[in-house]
């Protein structure tokens, strides 16, 4: 039996692993930010811009934004296929919500690299 690995179709295992991996990255970033708030005695604009002027923090934030988008895409697909029975409405909602998730990443990029 020959399997075509070049297709763009997703399967349940890929979705499962993607959701768990992105959730771990989002959790790690959240723990980092909460730890920063707890360990920094005074949060000021200077401290906040100092944190986000670091290239590693910018990269981690961008990776987390992309993970949030991937996590959202998979979750929206699962919810829409379960609860929206009309295929046209499901397609329109999926397109609009995925476009919104992409817009959040793009806006996040402009905000992040503008610091």
UniProtKB/TrEMBL annotation:
UniProt-annotated binding residues for heme: 71
Name a single GO biological process.
cytochrome complex assembly
Protein name, per record: Succinate dehydrogenase hydrophobic membrane anchor subunit
- Which residues bind a ubiquinone per the record? 83
What does the cofactor section's free text say about binding? Answer: The heme is bound between the two transmembrane subunits.
Q: Where in the cell is it found?
A: Cell inner membrane
Spans through the membrane: 21-39, 59-80, 92-113
Q: What does this protein do?
A: Membrane-anchoring subunit of succinate dehydrogenase (SDH).
Name the pathway.
Carbohydrate metabolism; tricarboxylic acid cycle
- According to its UniProt entry, this protein's organism is Pseudoalteromonas rubra
Q: What is its main location?
A: membrane
Q: What gene, per UniProt, encodes this protein?
A: sdhD
């Amino acid at each position: 039996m020959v399997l075509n690995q070049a297709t763009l179709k997703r399967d349940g295992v890929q979705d499962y692993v993607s959701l768990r991996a992105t959730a771990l990255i989002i959790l790690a970033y959240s723990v980092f930010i909460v730890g920063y708030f707890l360990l920094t005695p005074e949060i000021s604009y200077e401290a906040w811009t100092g944190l986000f002027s670091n290239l590693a923090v910018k990269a981690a934030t961008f990776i987390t934004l992309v993970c949030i988008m991937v996590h959202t895409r998979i979750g929206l697909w699962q919810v829409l296929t379960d609860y929206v029975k009309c295929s046209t409405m499901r397609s329109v909602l999926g397109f609009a919500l995925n476009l919104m998730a992409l817009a959040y990443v793009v806006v996040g990029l402009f905000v992040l690299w503008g610091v």
